[in-house]
Design goal:
440 residues, alpha/beta, 17 helices
Length: 440
């Protein structure tokens, strides 16, 4: 099958590489020439485990190509996936300007039947806007050709996107056309050999499904974080509570790990968009607003614990930060708790020594021009002259550290564990002051 993907960001590049790996001929298009030149040079602009080797393998096989020439991509492809960004506006609404611009440009080159597929996360009703925009351009050009618009939201976890795409829990296809449903099933059937996980539904239902899924996962995170606060107040251990509720098959263990809040490109943006969508129909989305408020408070929880231990004035204090990305196995720092924590510490007069296995370049960009922050070569270098260790991102290499070495390097044996990686009793027995999330 021949297809084009407009947008070579996280979703577009991953999708393109995975489709190509399953045998399709894929053209990835972007109007950012620097990004395309980078990809043509064999370099990947994002960090995602397994993606670089997959891209190189399929480029070498001739199934995957990169270009800025959308006209030729439209001419050569039946399926045109729109996978451009939909960043949040100040009011929380999704910015659809890139989606509609892509639709307009596609229509300016269409001369025969095409299927335009919204892969970007977009509000309910976006497919109608895309369809109207394409028809408007075709009418202005005097071109009479049929086309269909479908929705195919992505459900990729950063850090595990290749596995998620190649072995999906489900593939959601939003369409009212049997022809489109058949073609999309044909495209995705190789990914679902063991089970038929392809779910066909109306376009608006597909658009809503993506938001509902992310909102529910974010709700689980804020729920367990709120329970962790109650555990601290009543001297209960949230880890024991988590096992107690997670063993219930109706609840499960996923997304009930207490910590310092969610971040990334999806949950914060999608919660805001759903709240905005609710406001547009005069509906008060009380649960979603609470999820967002709890998450904002949780990102500052370690700061409150630092103030309780050291006092409000942190001038002269230095803090070691382990982890900067919003989660392991990615360099993405969008909405990362580390940004809130570091800025709060700097404002209180503290100095920062930080390390992350892959997000250092992104961190240097975000904190460019900030004084009193040092980016170190490894996690142990951050401990030198530091008054406390703050575990922010649960990278594997932080899970079983050399505690004797940590204690020797720190000026004070204090650990603030924002991800509950360590056993409180064990760490305290080694002489540390330990602060976790909802632990006793």
């Amino acid at each position: 099958m021949k297809l084009a993907i407009i947008g070579t960001g996280y979703v577009g590049l991953t999708s393109g590489a995975c489709f190509a790996d399953m045998g399709s001929t894929v053209i990835c298009v972007d109007n950012n020439k620097e990004k395309i030149d980078l990809l043509l040079d064999g370099k990947i602009p994002i960090f995602e485990p397994g993606l670089e080797s997959m891209v190189k393998r399929n480029v070498a096989a001739g199934r995957l190509s990169f270009t800025t020439d959308l006209k030729s991509a439209v001419a050569e492809s039946l399926l045109l996936f729109i996978a451009v960004g939909t960043p949040p506006e100040e009011d929380g609404s999704a910015d659809l300007s890139h989606v509609l611009a892509a639709a307009q440009e596609i229509a300016s080159y269409m001369n025969e039947y095409k299927i335009i597929v919204d892969k970007s996360t977009v509000p309910v009703g976006t497919a109608d806007k895309v369809k109207a925009k394409i028809q408007e351009v075709l009418d202005a050009r005097g071109v009479k050709t049929g086309f269909d618009v479908a929705s195919n939201p992505e459900f990729l976890k950063e850090g595990a996107a290749i596995d998620d795409f190649m072995k999906p829990d489900r593939v959601v296809i939003g369409t009212d056309s049997e022809k489109v449903a058949h073609i999309m099933r044909t495209l995705y059937t190789p990914f679902c050999r063991t089970n038929d996980r392809i779910v066909v539904m109306s376009i608006r239902s597909a658009e809503m499904t993506k938001y509902a899924a992310n909102a529910l996962l974010a709700t689980k995170i804020s729920f367990i974080n709120e329970i962790s606060r109650l555990c601290e107040a009543y001297n209960a251990d949230v880890e024991e509570v988590r096992h107690g509720i997670g063993s219930d098959s109706r609840i499960g263990y996923k997304f009930i790990y207490p910590g310092i809040g969610y971040g990334g490109s999806c949950f914060p943006k999608d919660i805001k968009a759903l709240i905005y969508m609710s406001d547009q129909v005069s509906f008060d989305s009380r649960i979603l607003k609470a999820v967002e408020a709890v998450n904002a408070d949780q990102k500052r929880l370690l700061i409150d614990k630092v103030a309780a231990h050291f006092g409000q004035n942190l001038k002269g204090k230095t803090f070691s930060i382990w982890g900067l990305a919003f989660k392991p196995e990615t360099d993405d720092m969008r909405e990362a708790p580390s940004i809130v924590i570091i800025n709060a510490l700097l404002e209180a007069g503290a100095r920062i020594r930080a390390f992350d296995p892959v997000a250092m370049d992104e961190a240097r960009r975000i904190f460019a021009g900030k004084d009193n922050i040092c980016f170190c070569d490894n996690e142990y270098d951050t401990l030198i002259d530091s008054d406390a260790l703050m575990l922010v991102t649960e990278w594997h290499q932080f899970r079983e550290p050399d505690f004797a070495r940590i204690k020797k390097l720190l000026k004070q044996a204090v650990i603030f564990d924002g991800r509950n990686l360590y056993d409180p009793a064990q760490v305290r027995e080694m002489g540390f002051s330990y602060y976790g999330i909802g632990r006793i």
